[in-house]
Amino acid sequence: MVPADPDGGGLMRVDLLTEPVAGLDEALAAVDAFDRTLVAGLLRPQPAQAAALTGLADAVAGTPLAERVAEAADKAAAGAASEDDLVALAAARTAVFGAVHDALTARADEATGRVRPDEQPFPASESASPNLLAAARSWLADLARAGWQGLDHDVVAGAAQVVSAMLPEPALRRLAVLLDGFAAELAASCPGAALERVPVRRWADLWSRAMLLTRPGALTAAPAEPVSGRLLPLGVDLHEHATAVQAQVHAVFEPADGSTPRLVRASVSAPKPDTVVGMGVWQLLRPHMALLAAVSEGRSMDLDGMPLTAEGDLLWDDAQARQGDPADPFATARVALPKAAASTAAPLDRHPARIAVPVFLDGYGVQRDDAATVFALPGHNLPVDIDRIPTAGPLTPEAVAASTACIGLLRWDAGRFAVQPLAVEATVKKKALVLHAGAWAGGTADTAGVKAEKAATDAVAVLRERAGKLLRR
Amino acid sequence: MLPSDSADPDSRWEEASAARVVPPARPRKLAKVPFVELADGRLQGVVSSGSDISRVYVSSVAVRTFAFACSTNNNRPCGGARGSFCKHIEALIAEAVLQYGGDRVGRYLRVDLADAAPTAGSISSTMRATRPAQGDTSAAAPVFSRFLRHLAYLELAATTAPLPEMQWFPPTRTAVA
Ligand SMILES: [Zn+2]
């Protein structure tokens, strides 16, 4: 176990993260069986698929969804599911994962000693562009009928037009980016009949999430209130697929009125050509959020009237932030993080993939081989997800292996908790180093970083020059 | 020894929401070949003309048959692509290997390669040795429009509204097998 922080910080109960969670296996079994029905597709369901559909309906039997899902499962088992039936099945799967999310989040809160407020109401409003949403739903229904093994280029190509039409619409960006990343994976996996293995849970996740986002009101933005105070960054979490990138800064927000500090995120994202990678993605994001430069410089920021959602997301606007004093993220992690309150996820966002709890770890040993890295704590091992460390940054798996303290995100996937390193304190060649995964987000003077900056600048310049010539003719 | 929490890495992968499916493109210089992709049953892309900045060639090689085509964006046939690969197609193969790795390119095209780490040279010469036929240039228009779509991503606005769906798309340091 991690020793208690002398300043009164929390005691991380790593042992709780490896103990069984009641009901988890049963819930996942129902979902896994449903997910396998999507491998063969729902055009001509076999008896095993029919049983899995009934199993999913049974899993939500005690909920308001029960009747609608039972009907949808019957229709799907007969090979006659309508688009609305498929949406109902996606909703049932999402509800089961919602319960899984809640149980895992409660466990993570227990392990980190964190307080989380009760669920808050999330209003839904009407969505714009019903035609585009309907087109997306129709494509997703085609996918479900074909199944992953029935994928071919014709089925997958149906997404391209919908995505192109959605991307410029800010209100549809979430769904557009999801469909775009999903369709690219499917295209790279064609023909489905030749697939040696299928990412069964992942594609069912992406499919059901997209299906639900096509429903009226699902894309409603969370309500936000203006806040003022000091923002102390902890680290940067990067997400990317071939044609989109997002950086999320995790931070502790200290309200100016002296009320309880909060764990918050600030996000910036952009669509991108697939050849813009590595340093290039920081360059795309940098101009839109001054916070990235503050992270690279090790500074806090002072917020004045910045909107903050009930989910803990700052809706960043540079006009409402100014540069603050130097702030060491490790000091923030040791002192401010244990006292910060978390937020509650919006109903649709309750999924284990969404769990990313900032944690501070020290007093561990590191075990590393070709297959895995783990932080070894007395009696308990915490797997380390080193694959999530972005390549365009100074943090490396080697540095993690040499580390003595770590700021990370506690995540859960494929049946277990793991920590994703955001920053480490390490001793390399008898020198004490502090390395942040997002250190190059705002720019860098590091030799390797400068070279990567130049190459990325040149690549984007070529594309912009071409776009200038060809797109506006 | 590390604790083995799962005997079978494949089953863990199948149960992972964040399973990595497509390896990220590797950085490369874009001046000569601004666009290359493995799609629609072809290795296809756009190659800059050496002499005229406003002209580009649309080049492609088909999976399995290696039928090749090269023409300008105004659909004028490339003089070099008669009988065998022109220099644009060779450049396309070279840049595809930089972007995706020789393994993936060779596997996608179904090139029967003896070497463990295929290079652009070995992929190209193996394909040429089968004496592939010259294909028609009907793909040029759709490939060019995919290139324009690709460029259009640069014109889309960034946003600071969170995209929760991106949680499913973590970066990866390792090439996906
Ligand atoms: Zn040519």
Q: Keyphrases for this structure?
A:
heterodimer; A: 473 residues; alpha+beta; OB fold (Dihydrolipoamide Acetyltransferase, E2P); 3 domains; 6-stranded mixed beta sheet; 4-stranded antiparallel beta sheet; 14 helices; disordered N terminus; B: 177 residues; 5 helices; 4 strands; 14% strand; globular; binds zinc ion
Task: Determine the oligomeric state from the structure.
Answer: heterodimer
Major sheet size, sense and barrel closure of chain A = 6 strands, mixed
The figure for the number of domains of chain B is 1
List the ions, cofactors and other small molecules found in this model: zinc ion
Helix content of chain B: 25-40%
Arithmetic mean pLDDT of chain A: 93
- Terminal CA distance of chain B reads 25 Å
The side-by-side strand order for the widest beta sheet of chain B comes to 1-2-3-4
Which value, in Å, is the CA radius of gyration of chain A? 23 Å
Number of strands of chain A: 13
**DSSP strand content of chain B:** 5-15%
The figure for the number of domains of chain A is 3
Question: Which protein chains are joined by the largest interface, and how many residues does each one contribute?
Answer: A-B, 102 and 62 residues
Distance between the termini of chain A: 64 Å
Description of the structure:
The complex is a heterodimer of chains A (473) and B (177). Chain A is an alpha+beta fold and 473 residues long. Chain A has three domains: 24-111 and 123-213, no CATH class; 224-339, OB fold (Dihydrolipoamide Acetyltransferase, E2P); 347-436, OB fold (Dihydrolipoamide Acetyltransferase, E2P), CATH 2.40.50. Chain A has helices at 14-18, 24-40, 47-59, 66-77, 83-112, 130-146, 153-166, 173-188, 200-213, 279-285, 291-297, 329-336, 397-401, 447-470; strands at residues 224-241, 244-255, 262-271, 299-309, 313-314, 321-326, 357-362, 365-368, 373-377, 380-384, 403-413, 416-428, 431-436. In chain A, the strands form three sheets. A six-stranded mixed β-sheet of chain A has the order 5-3-2-1-4-6, with helices on both faces. A four-stranded antiparallel β-sheet of chain A has the order 7-11-12-13. Chain A starts with 13 loop residues before the first helix and ends with a helix. Mean pLDDT of chain A is 93; it is low at 1-10. Chain B is α+β, with helices and mostly antiparallel strands and 177 residues long. Chain B has one domain (22-148). Helices cover 29% and strands 14% of the residues of chain B. Chain B contains five helices and four strands, in the order αββββαααα. Chain B has a four-stranded antiparallel β-sheet with strand order 1-2-3-4, with helices on both faces. Chain B is globular and about 50 Å long. At the A-B interface, α7, α8, α9, β1 and β2 of A face α1, β1 and α5 of B. The structure holds zinc ion (ZN). Zinc ion (ZN) binds next to β3 of chain B.
